[in-house]
Amino acid sequence: MTTTQVTWDLTELFSSTTDPKINQAIAQATALADAFEKTYRGKIIHLNADGLLACLTEMEKFEAKFIDILLYSSLSFSAVMILPQTQALNDRANKLQVAIGKQLAFYRLELGTLLQSNPKLVEESALHNYQNMLKRVYRGFRHQLSEVEEQLIIEKDQFGIDAWQELQSKWLNTRIFDVTVAGEKKTLSYGEANGLLTHPDRATRESANKSIYGSLGKDGEIFASALRSICNDWVNVSKRRKYSSPMEASLISNDTEQNVIDNLHRTIEKNANVYRSYLKLKAKLMGLPVLGNHDITAPLPSSSEQKFTFQQAQDLVTRAYSRLDPQYAFAAKEMFSKRHIDATPRFGKRNGAFCSSYYNGRSAYILQSFNGSLSDVFTLAHEIGHATHDWYASRSQTLLNLNIPAIVAETASILGELLLTDLLLEEAKTEAERRTVLCLVLDEAGMAAFQVTARVWFEQALYASIQKGEFLDYNTICSHWTAARDRIYGDAVTWFPEMEAEWTMKPHYYMPNYRFYNYPYVYAQMFVYSLYDQYLQEGKKFVPKLKKALSAGSSLAPSEISNIFNLNTSVSNFWNKGIKIFERFIDNLQKTT
Ligand SMILES: [Zn+2]
Questions:
Q1: If we measure between CA atoms, which residue out of 102, 29, 106, 33 comes closest to residue 68?
Q2: Least confident of 19-28, 188-197, 310-319, 483-492
């Protein structure tokens, strides 16, 4: 545990939740939105290239002002969610976002209409900076509805379909769980019980799993109601918006194509045996005939409980990044020196970890709950990767080119984890230490590439089920989940019956209007493995390509980003490269035994 508090300094944004500059910023952002509406409503459809350039620049000015407010309110709320003043400010910012979202809904509609009537506009040299952004708007345009319909959707969803999502998270955060921790009976919150799923003691893991998923399963019909409503709503919305499949909206937002993603999942399915061979090796290392579901991401019984101070984690991550190239660690160093990281665990702090980019200050903010485990050090390396990506992109791009699709946004973060892996393996003093690192890496990659693929199949099965006219009650949904899960795990894992409810706790299944959240993680894991392999082969020659890719932000499509590395993700066997790296880690683990 760290003895000193590691909290972030948000004063670059505002000094406190009562800073009078917040009201000023809100007034300025509102004035910019009003001025934008006054200048451009009804006029965008008549703009020439120069006129459109001016319009996009104005939009960026408004957004630059507005994101300060949104960022500060969400960061201060995430740090302490239980304070009335952070809740109030966050609520105020959210309401303002909805109001301005409705006010400016005309902008994308008119922009789309303009591009439809004059597709050549995208090629104009004046608009060169915005070429990819305009292509994305154009691709999404045919799925937009009228301005009033779009406004109605925003209004009705706020207290309609969005409420199912709130219900799911409220359930998780208001229940208590009885767990036997190392022989002692305890009553725990969801966050606390969840933290025991990777406890070193196997009986504790079993108790935590059975308690959490047993309770979730008892209320299974409630979760089924929520998920059924959200999926059926999406089927209706998809029809209205003329999407060819429930996944198309997600493909558009990721700036990618169905065949790329289908090839990816086919490759994962064909190589499920590779993951299973790891799970079988892990069972051997744990002295078990077969892994239980509570062992999949558990630490090895032999693994030394290595603890790290935040200072040690900072040192490891900075050195790992510097080894690629000294300049590549600039962002990491700046994040620590500017105190843009909130790492100390506290009551009322948001669970998990995230990195938020900050365009006007050019250094992102990271939140995590650092408890000193090796896995926490990896989380820091991951989030610093996001900050590094932001660092390069925000210095090279204007604001509208920082809308980085999820399949690309994980590039530097996953690479950061691999850089840390290399350093830790090199500096490990014993085979047991090496084994601990390798298992952690394989556990994480196994989840990201293989288990997450099962989640995609699960979602696809739900929509196929609705299409066939089936009613998605709790048991039906569970059977879709266990079928998808078993396609990956086969005979390599045995499951507690309670685990049929595993789907109920994943928040992203309940995100209305944002379906198929999962596959970008599979894409990113496999894509970054290919980059990593190239880095190992080319060394320093690889570095300028990486910087170019990160600096591109969203000004290039993901396919163009892969071209920088001479990689082609649309070739069906492309994803095998990633599998090879996964296999190499398994071989290395085998060698430590
Ligand atoms: Zn990430």
A1: 29
A2: 188-197
Strands (E), 182-315: 184-189, 291-292
CB 206 within 8 A of CB 182: no
**What average pLDDT score do residues 234-249 get?**
95
pTM above 0.90, yes or no: yes
CA end-to-end distance (rounded Å), the chain: 31
Give the separation between CA 539 and CA 325, rounded to whole angstroms.
Answer: 10
Q: How do 184-189 and 176-181 pair as beta strands?
A: antiparallel
Angle of the 374-396 helix axis to the 330-337 helix axis, nearest 10: 110
Phi, psi (rounded to 5 degrees) for 184: -110, 130
- CA 591 to centroid of ligand 1, rounded, Å: 30
Ligand 1 center to 385 CA (angstroms): 8
What pLDDT is stored for residue 265 in this prediction?
96
Least confident of 127-141, 157-171, 236-250, 253-267: 157-171
Q: Which of 161, 165, 190 is nearest to 176 (CA)?
A: 190
The pLDDT, as a whole number, for residue 556 is 97
> Could you tell me if residue 303 is left (phi over 0), alpha (psi between -120 and 50 degrees) or otherwise beta?
beta
- Distance from Cα 3 to the centre of ligand 1, integer Å: 27
**161 Cα–ligand 1 center, Å:** 27
CA 182 to ligand 1 center in whole angstroms: 32
3-state secondary structure at position 215 = helix
pLDDT-derived band at 1, boundaries 50, 70, 90: very low
Q: Is the pLDDT of residue 2 over 60?
A: no
pLDDT digits (tens, 9 = 90+) for 396-439: 999 999 999 999 999 999 999 999 999 999 999 999 999 999 99
What pLDDT digit, counting tens, does each position of 99-157 carry?
Answer: 999 899 999 999 999 999 999 999 999 999 999 999 999 999 999 999 899 889 988 99
pLDDT at 304: 65
Name which of 355, 410, 345 is nearest 380 in CA terms: 355
Cα–Cα–Cα angle for 292, 296, 302, rounded to 5 degrees = 95
**Cα(259)–Cα(276) distance, rounded to whole angstroms?**
26
Sequence-distant (≥ 6) Cβ neighbours of residue 243 within 8 angstroms: 143, 249
- 3-class DSSP state of 352: coil
CA–centroid distance, 438 to ligand 1, in Å, is 20
* Residues that place a CB less than 5 A from ion ligand 1: 413
CA of 470 to the centre of ligand 1 (A): 35
CA distances for 359 relative to 11, 411, 543, 554, angstroms: 15, 19, 24, 14
**What whole-number distance in Å separates Cα of residue 46 and Cα of residue 454?**
47
pLDDT above 90: percentage of residues in the chain: 88
What does residue 178 show for φ and ψ, rounded to 5 degrees? -90, 115
- The rounded Å distance from CA 151 to ligand 1 centre is 31
Alpha helices (H) along 143-219: 147-159, 161-174, 190-195, 202-218
Q: How far is the CA of 410 from the centre of ligand 1 (A)?
A: 5
